Amino acid sequence: MSDDSNEVKLFALSTCVHCKNTKQYLEEHGVDYKCVFVDQLEGDERKAVLEEIRTHNPKLSFPTLVCGNGRVIVGFHKEDIKEALQL
Fold it and tell me: Helices in the chain by DSSP H: which ranges?
């Protein structure tokens, strides 16, 4: 059984510079995370992911970073990411 309390999920767009910066920042700090490029999804899968994002970020803006501890960071904000993930 996996422990979701430490799971980090990045909802991003493949063409978004802020999303790329967030990915790079997480990788530079050795954060284990799952990245979902929403613009590369189709059909029901895309619909389901958008609904999931909407529960965390009703504006559906990107990047949306969902931390296992319940914190949600919208946009590329290094200090918020650092604090939320205790980097």
Answer: 17-28, 43-56, 78-85
